[in-house]
Amino acid sequence: MSWVSFLALFFITWWVVLFAILPFSIRTQDEDEDVTLGTVPSAPRGPHMLRAALRTTIVTMVLLGIFYGVTRGLGLGIDDIPHIVPDFSQKPEN
């Protein structure tokens, strides 16, 4: 895989992981019992995007590290998926 393909994969994976991580560890104004006038109680208490971006980057690096280990270390690819999963359609012989 070229470095351009790896960067594209990192970019796509980063955005998917970001939207998966965003709801975690958010404190709402209602939970802190300090609702700002003109906002809904379920609004986030403060900015948390820097922490979310940092966690997203770490999770993405771990996922792509696993992907790199499976593809380069074990030599597996997308074409090998049918061979990894056992074929349950065949009946065992008695």
Describe the structure.
By secondary structure, this protein is an all-alpha fold. Helices cover 51% and strands 0% of the residues. It contains three helices and no strands. It has helices at 3-21, 49-73, 81-84. It starts with a helix and ends in a 10-residue tail after the last helix. The mean pLDDT is 87.
Topology summary:
Blueprint: H1 3-21, H2 49-73, H3 81-84
Helix pairs in contact: 1-2
Quickly list its features:
94 residues, 3 helices, single chain, elongated, mainly alpha, 0% strand
Q: What is the CA–CA distance across the termini? A: 45 Å
Count of helical regions: 3
Number of strands: 0
Largest sheet: none
Order of helices and strands: HHH
The parts where pLDDT drops under 50 for at least 5 residues are none
Dominant shape: elongated
Strand content: under 5%
Question: How helical, in percent, are the residues?
Answer: 40-55%
Rounded average pLDDT: 87
Kindly provide the radius of gyration, computed on alpha-carbon positions and rounded to a whole number of angstroms: 21 Å
Structural class assignment: mainly alpha
Oligomer: single chain
Question: What does this entry show, briefly?
Answer:
The protein is mainly alpha-helical. It has helices spanning 3-21, 49-73, 81-84.
